[in-house]
Amino acid sequence: MLSTFFAALTDISAGTYYGFGNFLIQSGNLVVIIVMLVLFVLALVLPFPGTRRSK
Q1: Among 27, 28, 34, 52, which has the highest number of CB atoms less than 10 A from its own CB?
Q2: What are the two backbone dihedrals, phi and then psi, of residue 53, each rounded to the nearest 5 degrees?
Q3: Is residue 26 part of a domain?
Q4: 3-state SS, residue 31
Q5: Which of the 8 DSSP states describes residue 14?
Q6: Total domain count for the chain?
Q7: pLDDT of 43
Q8: What are the pLDDT digits (tens) for 1-55?
Q9: How far apart (Å, rounded) are the C-alpha atoms in residues 17 and 36?
Q10: Residue 19, in any domain of the structure
């Protein structure tokens, strides 16, 4: 599984762009945006540590 991940990373080069109509984005920037969105959703869903206090 790890080798498949690294093989997928080697396919993404610095000059790979994806276009959707008038929208054009570089593959590296797309990966960064997706990771940021995933982390944002996880920050909303996961509870804060120490918020459950017993009285």
Answers
A1: 27
A2: -105, 135
A3: yes
A4: helix
A5: T
A6: 1
A7: 92
A8: 667 666 666 666 557 899 989 999 998 899 999 999 999 999 999 987 776 666 6
A9: 19
A10: yes
Alpha helices in the chain (DSSP H): 2-11, 27-45
Both structure tokens of 16:
């790979």
User: DSSP assignment, residue 18?
Assistant: E
Assigned token pair, 19 = 């276009």
Distances in Å between the alpha carbon of 6 and those of 14, 16, 23, 53, 54? 16, 17, 28, 43, 46
Cα–chain-centroid distance for residue 55? Answer: 39
Which range of residues forms the domain containing residue 21?
2-38
Q: How far is CA 39 from CA 1, 26, 43, 46, 54, in A?
A: 23, 20, 6, 10, 29
> Is 16 contained in some domain?
yes
Whether residue 32 is contained in a domain is answered as: yes
